[in-house]
Amino acid sequence: MDYPECYELVFQASAVEDDTVIVRRTAKEGAGGYPIYEDETGIVRAEISELGEIRMLATGGHQVFGTPQVRAVTEHTEP
Fold first, then answer.
1. On the chain, which terminus has fewer CB atoms closer than 10 Å, C or N?
2. By percentage, how much of the chain surpasses pLDDT 70?
3. What pLDDT digit, counting tens, does each position of 24-45 carry?
């Protein structure tokens, strides 16, 4: 199965602007057998299925993520 190289995760916030994070595919797989994606800092990690189902993975203590909207990114340029 071919998976996108990048996804855009959009965490919705009620009082402020939404937070968008770009994650890239790693060589690792999660417990569900799907690729693990992470941001450039390695702090935001997620297992994403071919259907766009997402499971956020904690990388440190006390992390609590909401479920973001996920969009495949076909082309991304770094700032």
1. C
2. 94
3. 999 999 999 999 999 999 999 9
- Give the burial string for 25-64 (b: 16+ CB within 10 Å, else e): eeeeebeeebbbbbeeeeebbbbbbeeeebbbbeeeeeee
Q: How are beta strands 54-57 and 6-11 bridged, if at all? A: unpaired
> Nearest-5° angle of CA 71, CA 17, CA 73?
15
Return the structure tokens found at 77: 């340029």
* Total-model pTM: 0.83
Q: Which run of H or of E encompasses 71? A: strand 69-73
Tokens of 30: 């999660």
When mean pLDDT is compared across 10-14, 25-29, 61-65, 72-76, the lowest value belongs to 72-76
